[in-house]
Amino acid sequence: MFKMYVDNEQFNLQINRFIHDYYEEDERTSSDLKTIVPRLTDAESWYEAWREHAVMREDKQDYDLASAYYQAAEFYLLPSDPNKEIMYQKYRETFYKGFHDFDYESFQIPYENSYLPAIRLFTPGATKTLLVFGGYDSYMEELVKMMRFLRGTGYHIIVFDGPGQGTALKNGLKFIHSWEKPIAAVIDYFQLKRVSVLGGSWGGYLAMRAAAFEKRIDKVIAFNIFYCGLDALKIRMPDELWKKLTALLATDEAEQVNAMFEKMMEASIDVKWKITKGMENTGETTPFGLLKNFEKHTMEGIGALINQDVLLLAGEEDQYVPISRLPQIQRELCNAASITTKVFTRETGGEQHCQAGARHLAFDEMKKFL
């Protein structure tokens, strides 16, 4: 179950996301967290605490744990900070040293003037293929780690970083809404006839978008539901502030929007991270430009184009995605072959974003669906 470590709700989400779902019963982690958690007061102390323990665990050859700590250490660093690239590379280096859940093969899929990095996880006797990708801030290695929950499903699994994610982003490919393009590139590269897709977090929207326009997809998993990009900003803002912002966006009042976000970024680690990470992903240089970019990331107008089998997973207390979007998504999927829905509550567990703290519950539903 989701565990509260500190007063900051996003800090709690990231600790559960990176650590709790995999190492809840691990004595190494329990010991480390007793030292780490009291130090977590701001972005700088977050980085220092996780980095120090990552180095310590790497020295002890606890590579899986070191990798999780390096990912945490990298999380709030600004793109301009040279330590961000160092932490990212250490995260990946230690991840592959410690990953033994599947036999796998790595690929570089040609895409535009660069490539999409991908890993194919082999399942003996499998006859079908599942494509897996993240969203706003996840790396393919994080998704690869989750695939332990899907062992034995009869699917070969291909996990990849799309434009604006992980190594694809590092190589210059910026975040896009038209996810059917990278999906088509992956399908073509592996010469596949049919695939199922699993999109994590913002990838819940990207999976829907891809399914609307790429009909070699037969099943769609939204892990979690994600109707539009602006929801992730709106959900923790006072209604009056959001109404003001919406009005300013509609009339292209860029200077006022930027000034408002500069103040909010000074006051909130969460808002600062959302905006700086978004600008890194998309290449936008101002909050106004970023919000205009996010307006493209929406299910509005595409729901009726989705005619596949769909699994909708939703957390009742998701801090990024309002649960109120669920009925709207269900209505707009008017031509889906089938719709399976699972809402996770505090009573069931899995009430948080992407079921952080009880991730196995989400994957149990995925296995049934597949």
Question: Brief description of this entry?
Answer:
The protein has 370 residues and is of the alpha/beta class. The protein folds into three domains: 9-98; 104-229 and 297-369, Alpha/Beta hydrolase fold, catalytic domain (Rossmann fold, 3-Layer(aba) Sandwich); 231-294, no CATH class.
The order of strands across the largest sheet is: 1-2-4-3-5-6-7-8
Helix content: 40-55%
CATH topology of the largest domain: Rossmann fold
Going by CATH, the architecture of the largest domain would be 3-Layer(aba) Sandwich
- How would you characterize the largest beta sheet? 8 strands, mixed
CA distance, first residue to last residue: 24 Å
Averaging pLDDT over every residue, what do you get? 96
GO molecular function: hydrolase activity
Protein name: Alpha/beta hydrolase
Keywords: Hydrolase
Pfam families: Abhydrolase_6
Description of the molecule:
The protein has 370 residues and is α/β, with parallel strands linked by helices. The chain folds into 3 domains: 9-98; 104-229 and 297-369, Alpha/Beta hydrolase fold, catalytic domain (Rossmann fold, 3-Layer(aba) Sandwich); 231-294, no CATH class. It is built from 16 helices and 8 strands. The protein has helices at 9-23, 27-36, 43-59, 63-74, 82-98, 140-146, 166-170, 180-190, 203-213, 231-234, 239-250, 254-267, 269-282, 287-294, 325-332, 359-369, and strands spanning 104-111, 114-121, 128-133, 155-160, 195-200, 217-223, 309-315, 338-344. It has an 8-stranded mixed β-sheet, sandwiched between helices. α9 (203-213) links the parallel β5 (195-200) and β6. α12 packs across α13. The radius of gyration is 20 Å and the shape is globular. The relative contact order is 0.11. The mean pLDDT is 96.
